[in-house]
Model the fold of this input.
Amino acid sequence: MSRSLPASAGAGAMKRRSRKLSLERREKAWGYLFVSPWVLGFLAFTAGPLLFSLYASFTNYDITSQMDWVGVKNFHRMFKEDPLFWISLKNTLFYVVLMVPLTTLSSILIAMLLNVRIPGMRLFRTMFYLPSVLSGVGVYLLWMQLLNPESGLVNQILSLVGIDGPSWLTDPNWTKPAVIFMKMWSVGGGMLMYLASLQGVPEQLYEAAEIDGAGAFRRFITITLPMISPVIFFEIVTGLIGGFQIFQEGYVMSDNTGPGAPMNSLMFYNLYMYLKAFKVFDMGYAMAMAWFLFLIVIVITIVNMLVSKYWVHYEGGDQR
Amino acid sequence: MKALHKSTLVLLSLGLTMGGVLAGCSSKDGGTSGNAESAAGGSNAKQEKVQLDFWTFWGSTTRRPIIEKIINDFNASQDKIFVKHTYLPFGDIWTKELAQVAAGNPPDVIVNDITTVAQRAVKNQNTNLKDLIGSDDIQSRFFPELWKTTLYNNEPYALPFVTDTRVMFYNKKLFKEAGLDPNKPPATWDELEADAKKLDKIGSDGKIERLGYEPTIAGGWDLFLADSDGLPLVDDQGPHINTPSKIEALGWVKSWSDRLGKKNLDAFKAGFGSQQNDPFIAGKLGIKIDVATFWTQIRDFYPNKEDIGIAPLPEFKPGTGHNSIGGGFVLEIPKGAKHPKESYEFMKYLTDAAAQKYWAQKNFDNVANIQASNDPELQADPVYKAAVDNLKNTKVSVVPINAPDFRNLINPEVDAVLLGKETPKEGLDKAQAAVQNLMDQNKT
Done:
């Protein structure tokens, strides 16, 4: 409480200052007060369990009977002895590498199309946004019917143009493309973000460029893209993080023959982790897997952040 | 100063309250388990009962009333114990139980999977019943095959409740139409194939209008692999996946889709999306292998059920045996339950002849109690009798402790074989090696 004040300060000034100080302090205290539920919640429900799982990933923890320190044995098993680990990692990478660019491109494309002023545009926007509101198992079941090789709508439409469609969910070469294809249906969420940022691009930039004789494509490359690049960056980062967490599709769409079927083509990393954790209670191993995934994602995100300063453009100076 | 003091106080008290709430959350029991102590409020003259919480996944309109009647009968039969039924969906019940066991607040009795009792015993998730059983001769109640599933180190950790068995249903009317003897179901795999070909109705373009039989649609490849040599895929001795019989069996399973055409089978399957629309019930499938309780569907949905015959599974080769596989459920006391003695009393009641007979009668289930199973009143039903008779051909194979998730290694290889990417021998050799590797990994 005691702050030494300069001796030169008059009594009045001192009074003023102490009042100001206590006001500042009071405000601080209220600030802490209001943030405390979140802080406590974070400590109890996020940070605590996180640290616990970090510790447990070096043990043979199985919830009920054992928790002995085994050093890096779990990691050794993962990298050296468990072929399914590599298969599941490969599947997840395949999915992420294809899904993120495709959804980014298509949501920008749709957003551009929906940024035109024609009557009925609101209806179209709603239509494109709608699928991303629907989610979860219901949608997967719907798609399982749509992708049925014989009676599904997708292959029926393909056969109209003379293409003999693949057995989407039973041919191991086509299952992941099918899941990505399904994902494309719900790009509405990203589209909405792009649409908002497209509307925020100042009209006079386009006008100026047009007067200078820039064509439509040139305007898109030099004005639109830089102006919406922060949103693209955000979408790519969150898309990557979300992509690595793919789980439900593999769990639900495995054609009743077991998770990840056929031929482990839908055995994604998180699905395998879930099976290890909650089907055979190999918790220590699953937690080691979780931390390894965390490591991958954090490295990719940091790289993203570093690379972003070369292509992400923020209006208003150098706030990188 | 004062103001600061006040806000610090508020902050502190808020923090404490939060902490209290959190601690309360962890120490409370989610409001499921009845606490006997809490009932000890009033000094009632009535004797205080021990409350038990019994968890099942039997919530359907068929099963819930049955189990709840059995529970009510038990509650009325004595005045020391009161059992409360908690229904949890099949997908959640065991995960939830595990969380409760870890928190030291489990239910008192739970229905669990019969093939993994030893897995849980190793992991300290269920209670050893040896001392509770004491000198009770309870073992003789049950089919020996089922009693065996409850043992870990030769000590029981559960009591068997129900089991199931796979039998062959065949449509006599279609048999007659196809010129086959309706009283002579196929007894070997060769006969099954010959009969099925006669039952098939296939258009000139390969489109299947009626299907005699196909193993993956109406049985499952694993069933035929087990039927071929009577050995489970994996047991304590290790994997038996690439035995000559099983390799031949898998080749045979695949030969059907080669003959009929995968696309045509897909189209046939697509016509019957769901349970409500079974091809056998619709008269579009001549033969079906399924658990005996499939009869309830025939009973409820098939117009004249006297057209349907029931028989044991056909033999791989004459003399190899009509080997069938089964599963089922047991009753367990989760580790750390508060009233094991009372829990055991209740489990004894549930596995006794009266309760088991009632369950079998209403559910058409194969019960674990021999006396109830052989009850003359039940045996009067020919289908029920056929199901019970089939138990002697049925193996319930327990999942070995060091291969808990072996199926994840076999399934992909079999997928590959059925898709024609590997020969049966290659696929099963690989699966054998992978399961062996898993079992070695888990040897601690």
